[in-house]
Q: What sequence folds into this?
């Protein structure tokens, strides 16, 4: 299978997903996608991603709830890295991320260099602890 | 799920059909009505060999033993429907998994059938994989993941068994009280760790009781949604002797848990926990539904535990009054160092009660708050802290003084002048630490007070920043001189990118505003290296210094183990 692991991209905006998919695939990652929290959780079972790139603002379950659910999952919680995609500047938001157990965040609009750095450092840390 | 019903009563047949359809279970009913026992038996026994999940058996004394035997061999759950005390007793003696008293509604049957299949200790001979999986899924619902103890629904079944068997049961309610500041000071991760230790200690205690042999049955249960535990036991002895055993058990449990917390998290953390045990003994009463009896027992035991708690509290209030009269607090000074050079920049004054029970500041202030003596205590602490300044601080060092939210309502504090600071003439060397929470709750008046203090030269620090109460905006509005980052942001920061991001944002913001950032609770070299890399200006923590009653001697200021 793939060598660099699967990344699950969760965003209600399909354009965003496409942009992220194109970039991540060009860097050798396998990308799976979900348009909302519920689908994302179902997808987790199927693809068992190493990392989830999770948008905060989504209709229905928001990103924090999804993150909490993933992190509390007995099977996925410990081995899945969650990187939040959040609006710039809101410190409260980032603090919420800490509370819900997220591992890292990137700010919107996404800077690819920053994104890649954070994806890599989280996958590396995961390798170290898994 | 498949259910076999052995039913003669027409009404029971109807209710059972309704209950089964609600569970989408496949139901086969054998008519146990008029007719010879032999004919009925002929119909029932072959059905048992098809291994249904549950058998609901309308009680027949002639068949009871045999049905129990057949179902046990096959791991089938047996539920007896009984008419009155006498039948119930016989059914329990035969070892049914559960029983219902007739008449029973569809609701009740549904609940019992559901609970029956979820029973953990089924004496199964062979279980298929799918049965196992289902069993595990139930278990997750019925067992507290933290402690592995069953939760209330399971306990009721077992508790009733004990009550039925012994006619008497003792409930111990184990109440854990923690000072709310624990989370604020050490962060939620620490709290989680402590709770885990507590659960493990309770678990050990329970295992030891069970392993102790003897004739007592024990059952430990987690009180869902709470950190408390409920312990069921049946003492075979006379009531007076049992009373003694209860006290012993309570003592033993408390000592065990306290010792574990102390050895794993230190005396300071252990000091923030109190354990109270209350007990109630209940007796089987055929007129009262056992569940109700058990719930009543739990409530009684919980009330008893709270009684013990309130007695302890009043004793502490008396201790506090003595403390205030005799000025029995002392101050320890905790150094704050410059991150780059590790030189001492200033000291935070921390009050300790001289009385042993009031030594922890959280307990000391907690009791004062309850007893409405917080102003008196705060005044005493400020006075003592400032008195010690000339002895401990160099002229170029700052004194960080914690201000309680209540202090701003104290008239003598608001108009605080130099005389009341013990004749100290350098307010600019004093940094008042305000917690983020004060800033929010008293906001409108607050800035006015701050301005008045600032005019006289005092400086300010926002304490516990990033503990989730306020955002950067409200911190900016206070224009503090220092921001103290909450310990929950610092502990384990080296391995947590989220925390690193947050601290980085804080430092950027502070640099823009000309504010200095202080990292609290730095305990490990890795944490120090990380905050240094992120540009945090000042650092405080056990890695460098523990709080002490004296100044850090020159020369060892930067000493620490590497």
A:
């Amino acid at each position: 299978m793939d060598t660099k692991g699967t990344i699950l991209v969760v965003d209600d905006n399909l354009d965003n997903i496409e942009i992220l998919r194109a970039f991540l695939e060009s860097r050798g990652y396998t990308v799976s996608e979900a348009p909302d929290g519920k689908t994302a959780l179902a997808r987790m079972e199927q693809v068992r991603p190493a990392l989830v790139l999770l948008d905060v603002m989504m209709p229905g379950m928001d990103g924090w709830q999804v993150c909490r659910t993933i992190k509390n999952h007995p099977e996925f919680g410990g081995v899945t890295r969650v990187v939040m995609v959040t609006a710039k500047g809101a410190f409260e938001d980032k603090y919420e991320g800490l509370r819900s157990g997220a591992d890292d965040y990137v700010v919107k609009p996404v800077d690819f260099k920053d994104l890649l750095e954070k994806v890599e450092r989280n996958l590396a840390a995961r390798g170290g602890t898994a | 799920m498949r259910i076999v019903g052995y039913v003669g009563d027409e009404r029971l047949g109807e209710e059972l059909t309704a209950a089964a359809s609600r569970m989408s279970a496949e139901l086969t009913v054998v008519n146990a009505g008029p007719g010879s026992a032999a004919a009925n038996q002929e119909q029932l026994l072959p059905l048992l060999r098809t291994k249904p999940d549950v058998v609901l058996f309308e009680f027949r004394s002639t068949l009871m033993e045999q049905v129990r035997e057949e179902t046990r061999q096959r791991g089938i759950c047996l539920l007896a429907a009984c008419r009155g005390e006498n039948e119930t007793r016989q059914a329990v003696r035969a070892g049914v998994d559960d029983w219902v008293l007739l008449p029973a509604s569809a609701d009740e049957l549904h609940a019992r059938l559901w609970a029956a299949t979820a029973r953990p200790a089924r004496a199964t001979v062979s279980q298929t994989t799918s049965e196992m999986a289902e069993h595990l899924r139930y278990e997750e619902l019925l067992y507290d993941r933290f402690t592995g103890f069953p939760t209330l629904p399971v306990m009721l079944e077992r508790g009733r068994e004990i009550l039925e068997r012994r006619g008497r049961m003792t409930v111990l309610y184990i109440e854990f009280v923690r000072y709310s500041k624990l989370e604020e000071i050490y962060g939620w991760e620490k709290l989680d760790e402590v709770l885990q230790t507590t659960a493990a200690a309770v678990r050990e205690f329970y295992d030891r009781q069970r392993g102790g042999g003897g004739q007592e049955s024990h059952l430990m249960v987690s009180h869902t949604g709470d950190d408390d535990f409920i312990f069921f036991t049946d003492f075979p002895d006379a009531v007076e002797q049992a009373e003694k055993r209860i006290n012993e058990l309570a003592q033993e449990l408390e000592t065990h848990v306290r010792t574990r917390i102390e050895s794993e998290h230190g005396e300071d953390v252990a000091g923030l926990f109190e354990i109270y045990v209350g007990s109630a003994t209940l007796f089987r009463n055929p007129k009262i539904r056992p569940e109700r009896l058990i719930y009543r027992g739990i409530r009684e035991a919980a009330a008893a535990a709270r009684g013990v708690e309130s007695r302890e509290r009043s004793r502490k209030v008396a201790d506090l009054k003595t403390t205030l009269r005799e000025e029995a607090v002392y101050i320890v000074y905790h150094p704050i160092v410059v991150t780059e050079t590790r030189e001492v920049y200033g000291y935070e004054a921390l009050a300790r009660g001289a009385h042993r029970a009031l030594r922890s500041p959280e307990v000391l202030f907690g009791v004062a708050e309850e007893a409405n003596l917080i102003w008196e205590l705060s005044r005493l602490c400020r006075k003592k802290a400032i008195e010690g300044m000339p002895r401990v601080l160099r002229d170029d060092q700052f004194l960080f003084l914690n201000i309680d939210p209540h202090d701003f309502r104290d008239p003598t504090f608001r108009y605080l002048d130099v005389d009341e600071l013990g004749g100290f003439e350098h307010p600019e060397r004093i940094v008042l630490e305000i917690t983020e929470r004060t800033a929010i709750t008293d906001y409108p008046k607050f800035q006015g007070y701050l301005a008045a203090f600032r005019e006289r030269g005092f400086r300010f620090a926002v304490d516990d920043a990033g503990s989730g109460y306020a955002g950067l905006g409200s911190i900016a509005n206070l224009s503090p001189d220092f921001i103290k980052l909450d310990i929950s942001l610092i502990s384990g920061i080296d391995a947590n990118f989220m925390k690193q991001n947050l601290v980085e944002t804080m430092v950027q913001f502070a640099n823009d505003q000309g504010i200095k950032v202080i990292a609290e609770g730095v305990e490990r070299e890795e944490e120090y290296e990380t905050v240094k890399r992120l540009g945090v200006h000042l650092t405080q923590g056990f890695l460098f210094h523990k709080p002490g009653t004296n100044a850090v001697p020159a020369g060892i200021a930067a000493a620490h183990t590497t």
About this structure: The first strand of chain A starts at residue 6 and ends at 10. The domain at 6-129 of chain A is CATH 3.40.50.2300 (Rossmann fold). The interface with chain B takes residues 74, 90-92, 94-95, 97-99, 102-105, 118, 121-122, 125 of chain A (CB under 8 Å).
